[in-house]
Automatic annotation (TrEMBL):
Group of enzyme by EC: hydrolase
Name of the protein: Adenine DNA glycosylase
Organism encoding this protein: Polynucleobacter sphagniphilus
PANTHER family reported in the protein's UniProt record: ADENINE DNA GLYCOSYLASE (PTHR42944:SF1)
NCBIfam families to which the protein is assigned, alphabetical: mutY
GO biological process, one term: mismatch repair
Catalytic activity reported: Hydrolyzes free adenine bases from 7,8-dihydro-8-oxoguanine:adenine mismatched double-stranded DNA, leaving an apurinic site
Gene3D superfamilies: Helix-hairpin-Helix base-excision DNA repair enzymes (C-terminal), Hypothetical protein, domain 2, Nucleoside Triphosphate Pyrophosphohydrolase
InterPro entries found in the cross-reference section: A/G_AdeGlyc_MutY (IPR005760), DNA_glycosylase (IPR011257), HhH-GPD_domain (IPR003265), HhH_base_excis_C (IPR023170), MIG/MutY (IPR044298), MutY_C (IPR029119), NUDIX_hydrolase-like_dom_sf (IPR015797)
């Protein structure tokens, strides 16, 4: 067991924390974990397949999958992933394509690439055993400081704090932290506060950490915290500064965001009988490592494309320069397909699909450009909107 709440990562001093907190909050710091653990006994989530598990591999997979994915989806996909890759060694030995295919549909594909890279690191650097020190865990691919804290707390009972978006919201409300939480100084202070709030007994760390996650996700929610309804009595209602000062829906404050930029691109859906042309995306791009339709570079959106394209123009836009598909014999003219809008976290993309049938697949001589049989399409890791498109065109079915 370790006590890592005051590692060198917590770069605010105790004095800074005292300046940061009003005097009336200090009594709450000592009672916070007890109140939260008591709340969890009555209202926390129980029976989730990754709970009460001391296997750091299982904890790690669940923590990564739960980032940006709803619990209901994880409940369906987590058992499947664990069945497919039951140990960190089996995950490390799998190909990236196998991992991407298993992850398809969960979104935020850098998580899958990082899972695979991290598994390789654990095998190569730690002989297949996850370290219990959150500082070492944080050095692994795709594991941030909060996830490192969660793995250390759940699997090794280490006194390490977590600070995800839900926890930031809870702390900002209870302790009336009024500055935007994206600011580095505020973030540093929140980490320090999260460390101060830990239970004194290491054995309580799994329950406390789960309770903090559950409280933020189910009771002190962003839009409907329980103190604004008459359904439940929040255990912190008499201490919570946001509640006492009527600022519950105002805190935490966020920086005002600029509008997400929008982009257009053209996509080539080329078929030849029961084959469709797919291109593997570069690993560092959006949907990196997944297989998609060949696409043009993105341009700033200026309304929908109104002009029609000729097939040679489209080839020049979507296929690598080195390939010269003049010899392709089309069986029908290029057809304008649907336009699909996809919203990413920080941008929106409008994809204009162009459908083309050719007499026979030609050999491209490029490993990242492949004709894939329709029967095997379901085994490829595809971006979700492309998968939905191909399903809509009856080219792919789930489980095929
Ligand atoms: S009183 Fe409201 S805002 Fe404060 S912790 Fe409870 S649910 Fe959250």
């Amino acid at each position: 067991m370790q006590d890592l709440q005051n590692t060198n990562q917590a770069n605010s001093s105790g004095a800074a924390l005292n300046l940061f907190l009003p005097a009336m909050s200090k009594a709450l710091i000592t009672s916070f974990s007890k109140k939260l653990i008591a709340w969890h006994g009555l209202h926390g989530r129980a029976g989730l397949p990754w709970q009460n598990n001391l296997d750091p591999y299982a904890v790690w997979v669940s923590e990564i999958m739960l980032q940006q994915t709803q619990v209901a989806t994880v409940l369906e996909r987590y058992p499947r992933f664990m069945k497919r890759f039951p140990t960190v060694k089996q995950l490390a030995a799998a190909s990236m394509d196998e991992v991407m295919a298993e992850w398809a549909g969960l979104g935020y594909y850098s998580r899958a690439r990082n899972l695979h890279a991290c598994a390789v690191q654990v095998v190569e650097r730690f002989a297949g055993k996850f370290p219990n020190d959150p500082v070492l865990l944080e050095q692994l691919k795709g594991i941030g400081r909060s996830t490192a804290g969660a793995i250390a707390a759940f699997a090794f009972h280490v006194r390490a704090p977590i600070l995800d978006a839900n926890v930031k919201r809870v702390l900002a409300r209870i302790f009336a932290i009024e500055d935007p939480i994206e600011e580095k100084a505020v973030n540093d202070r929140l980490w320090n506060l999260a460390g101060e709030l830990l239970p004194s007994q290491a054995k309580d760390m799994p329950t406390y950490t789960q309770a903090l996650m559950d409280f933020g996700a189910t009771w002190c929610t962003s839009r409907g915290p329980v103190c604004l309804s008459n359904n439940h009595q929040c255990p912190f209602s008499k201490d919570c500064q946001a509640n006492l000062s009527d600022q519950v829906l105002i805190l935490p404050r966020k920086r005002i965001k600029a509008k997400s930029p929008e982009f257009n691109c053209d996509m080539l859906l080329m078929r030849s009988g029961n084959w469709v042309l797919l291109q593997k995306r570069p690993s560092k791009a959006i949907w990196g490592g997944l297989w998609s339709l060949p696409e043009s570079s993105w341009s700033a959106r200026a309304g929908a494309r109104t002009n029609d394209l000729q097939s040679q123009e489209l080839f020049a836009l979507t296929l690598p320069d080195s390939l010269a598909p003049q010899s392709l014999k089309t069986t029908e003219p290029l057809k304008r397909g649907p336009q699909i809008k996809h919203v990413f976290t920080h941008r929106r993309l409008w994809m204009q699909i162009w459908e083309l049938s050719v007499a026979k697949p030609i050999e491209w001589g490029d490993a990242d450009l492949q004709w894939v049989s329709l029967r095997q399409l379901g085994q490829y890791g595809l971006p979700q909107p492309i998968k939905v498109l191909l399903q809509g065109l009856s080219l792919i079915r789930d489980g095929v």
